[in-house]
Each structure stands twice: as structure tokens, then as C-alpha cells.
Amino acid sequence: MNPYLSATVASLQHGPWEHLLVSMQWVFVIYFVAINLGYLILNYISAYQIVRYMREYRANYLPPGLRDYQPPVSIVLPAHNEEKSVVASVHSLLQTNYPEFEIVVINDGSSDHTRDALIEAFGLVKVPEAYRARLHTAEVKGVYASARYPRVRMVDKANGGKSDAINAGVNCVRYPLFCVVDADCILQPESLSRVVRPFLEDRRVVASGGVLRVLNGCSVANGMLSKVGLPDRWLPSFQVIEYLRAFLFGRMGWSPMNALLIISGAFGVFYKERVIAIGGYRDDTVGEDMDLVVRLHRNLRDEKRDYRIVFVPDPVCWTEVPTDVASLAHQRVRWQRGLAESLWSNIGLMFNRYGGAVGWIAFPFMLVFEFLGPLIEVVGYVSMIVLALAGLVPLKSFLIFLAAAIGMGMLLSVNAMLLEELSFGLYARPMQQLRLFLVAVLENFGYRQMNSCWRFYGTLLWLFGLRKHHRWGHINRDGSWQHDAGEEEAMPIDPHAARSSQP
């Protein structure tokens, strides 16, 4: 070893820095243990809730005679440069098994042929329809309707970003409930019924969200999911496990406490008047979906109202995930910036006198483990590795750190996979289960650490006010789901049908 380096190491080992190094080691270990224990508790809450849900709702959504009592819903589909997927998404929505709904597509100043593709596919023509601008948006150029598809309308407007597009759709919808769906998503026939059910069961519900599943590796025919499969590439496969963790025990764990802080912007139902009352979606954030839910909580808590924001665990919405590293990195950086903007602009909710579980448990959890988490994780990994290589960390301490950081993360990933198989069982073939298990293990060796680095970078961008643009965040997609995935991947796509023999 270099004499200077040897002297430096000796001074650190025996000088005043020794106690600081020891303290840092244990801070990192305690943090990694705490965050994984927190997720483990959410996991067990979710397991109980999902088993209960499957017992109650494994049959049809509602008896046939009661279906007509479901409230009408407006489906809002914001689209910007989505010519490759928007027509298939609208066809998927048209096959929704729901008594009364409309589809409002918002073309947000697309520079490709999104507008023309919609006009050609659905025979849309411009109509002199009144447009009530209750929420301020960019210029609306016209409203289009279809004689062949009376449920479908299109709002053509100048580009203003996703939030602005959704607000334009809210201005145009006719029904008291609206459902936001991304233009690259595919719904199952019962999706809308299941996500609206909480509004029927409890008058206090103001918002409801459903599960997102990875569409890569699946097959879509005539706008409907025909076969369920797994991606044939590692990057989207890792995201399958990531989505299972995030939805099946992340959001499902918070819902019973009425502490759900995010409903995915790809699929959620909201009470229109309540959203308008808080000013609609903010157009100065990249995390408009989380920001809206946090503001709903804060506003309703301030008004001391009795309300519910709930989560439905059915795998009801399928979305294509990034297949290249650059697109995935861009997406995760945006998500982290959106998280930071949503939390800090609503910091008054934390430890609020009337904050309830959302203000006293969920908000601090998100702030410490989701916002600060990437910073602590990246610094922890780098410093522990450097100190271990320099001989400043005992092997025992380093192994404890790895067990806390990687071992428990692996446990959570495998638990998410098992929870999926025990409940909905969409990946029921032995080879699919084996591959999911391998992915659940391997994603902890590199992928999660890489994800932490992207999120850390997103935090820095927000902290220093860099790249403050709030437009559409597009990613490259391969569109593989638009082709047959092969007979070997064929599976029943209704989770209730697939698990009808469950207790």
C-alpha cells in the first residue's frame, strides 16, 4: 500500500474519526433494516387484505340485476404522440363491460399522426359542442364526436402537458365520476366495474385506484388482452417484480389506513367535483398523479371531512414498460422529482393536527424512506464498499450490511411474487414461476442499486432546481405486445376465473 495511504488509514483507525466511522456503519445498517421492516409490515397487511378481498369478490363483480345501478363514468384518455397505441387503447376501452360510460380522448398538440389516426379509426367529425372551462387550460381548438362510436369524443387542443390535457378532459366530461387512463394501457372487460365498486359500497369514497401490470411479453388482439406472458428481456422482467412490490403490498398496505398517497396516473377514478374544488391537476409538477392525491388528503383533512381514498388489488390495467436503460432512467428520474415536488409542496400535511394516519405515518414514511432513501442508500453503498476495501470496516460488519441491504430486499421481492401466485395467479406455469423467482433474486444484484442511483440523481435535480420542465415524459417502447406471444404463454386473463377454487 502507498505509504501516504497507509498513514491515512492508520489515522482513521486510531484517530478521532474512528468513532464517526463506526457510527456511520451502524446508521446505514439500521436504516436498511428499518426500511425493509417497514415494507415487511406493509407486506403482511396486504396479504391479509388480499386474501379477504379474494374471498369476498372472487365471484362476478355484481349480480346481473344490479349492474344497471352502477354510476356512469367518463374515461379521460390524455394522448401526446401516441399514434402507435392510442387506437388500440380506445378499442380496448370500448369493450369495457360497463353499462354507461363515455371516452374522451385529449389530443394534446401531438406532432405525429395521433389526431389523424383517431379521426380515421373512429370516424370523428368536429361538432359545435359547448366547452365549459371550469379549469384553466391551453387553447382548445375543437371537440370531435363519432356517429359510429357514440361513446367516443376527442378534444383537440394546443400542447400544454399531461396535467393540462387531463384538466381539459375534466372540463369536457359529462358524468360525476371520471377515470384517467394512459393512452398506452389496456384494460380488462371488468376493470372499470371493479375500480368503481368502492364508490357504490361507501359514499365517503372520493378516489379509487387499481393495479398496473406489465404488458411486455403479453399479446393483444382487437384491443383486448388475449394472452398473459412474461417479457423475454431482463430489464422489463425486473420491472414485473417491481410493479408487484409497489402495488400488491405497497399501496395495498396503506389503503386500509386511509393513508394511500398515490393513485397511478395510468388508471384511477375520481369524483369530479372534488377534483375541481382543489383546482384540478397542477401543471407545474412532473408527478401530477401523486400531487393530486396528496392535495385531496390535505384539503379534506383541513375541512375535517369524513372521506376515503382506496385501492383495488385486482390486476386491472396493463401498461408497457421501458425496454432500454436510457428510457427507464429518464422515467425513474421523473418519478423521483415528482415525489419530491408532491411531498414538499404539501409538507403541511405531515404531523398535522387533523392529519390522521396519512399525516402521521404515511407522509413521514414517504419522506424518510422514499425521498431521502436514495441518498442514504447510495452514500451507504459507496462508503461501506470504500471503507471495506480500505480495511476500515470489519468483515462481520460488512456482511451484516449486505444482509440488511440485499438479503431483506430479496425477501421482499420473493414475498411479492408469492403473494401474486397465492392470490391472482396470472403466471401459473412452472417455468413462469421459476423465472419470476430468479428475477426476484437477481434484481437485488445491480438493478435496485442502479434504480437508487437514478432516484438520487432525480433528487439532486429537484434540489438544485435543474430541468424544471413539466411536459410529457416519453419513453421508448418496443410494442412487442401487439404481436402474438406464442401459445406457450397462453393463460386465462381473469384472475377470479384463474383462482375460482381459492378458499
Fold and architecture overview:
With 503 residues, the protein is an alpha/beta fold. The protein is built from 16 helices and 14 strands. It has helices spanning 3-14, 17-57, 86-94, 114-122, 162-172, 191-201, 234-254, 272-277, 288-302, 325-345, 356-371, 373-389, 395-423, 430-442, 447-463, 495-498; strands at 73-79, 101-108, 124-127, 140-146, 152-157, 177-181, 185-187, 205-209, 212-214, 219-221, 224-227, 267-271, 308-311, 317-319. Strands 3-4-5-2-1-6-12-8-13 form a nine-stranded mixed sheet, with helices on both faces. Helix 2 (17-57) packs across helix 7 and helix 10 crosses helix 15 (447-463). The model is unreliable at 483-492 and 497-503 (pLDDT under 50).
Helix-strand sequence: HHEHEHEEEHEEHEEEEHEHHEEHHHHHHH
**Spatial separation of the terminal alpha carbons:** 64 Å
* Overall average pLDDT: 84
* Overall number of strands: 14
Instruction: Specify the helix fraction band.
Output: 40-55%
Structural class: alpha/beta
Largest sheet: spatial strand order? 3-4-5-2-1-6-12-8-13
Shape: globular
Stretches with pLDDT under 50, minimum 5 residues: 483-492, 497-503
Report on the biggest sheet: 9 strands, mixed
State the gist of this model.
This protein has 503 residues and is α/β, with parallel strands linked by helices.
Which short descriptors sum up this protein?
503 residues; alpha/beta; 9-stranded mixed sheet; 3-stranded mixed sheet; 16 helices; globular; disordered C terminus
List the helices and strands and how they pair.
Blueprint: H1 3-14, H2 17-57, E1 73-79, H3 86-94, E2 101-108, H4 114-122, E3 124-127, E4 140-146, E5 152-157, H5 162-172, E6 177-181, E7 185-187, H6 191-201, E8 205-209, E9 212-214, E10 219-221, E11 224-227, H7 234-254, E12 267-271, H8 272-277, H9 288-302, E13 308-311, E14 317-319, H10 325-345, H11 356-371, H12 373-389, H13 395-423, H14 430-442, H15 447-463, H16 495-498
Parallel strand pairs: 1-2, 1-6, 2-5, 8-13, 9-14
Antiparallel strand pairs: 3-4, 4-5, 6-12, 7-14, 8-12, 10-11
Helix pairs in contact: 2-7, 2-12, 2-13, 7-13, 7-14, 9-10, 10-11, 10-15, 12-15, 13-14
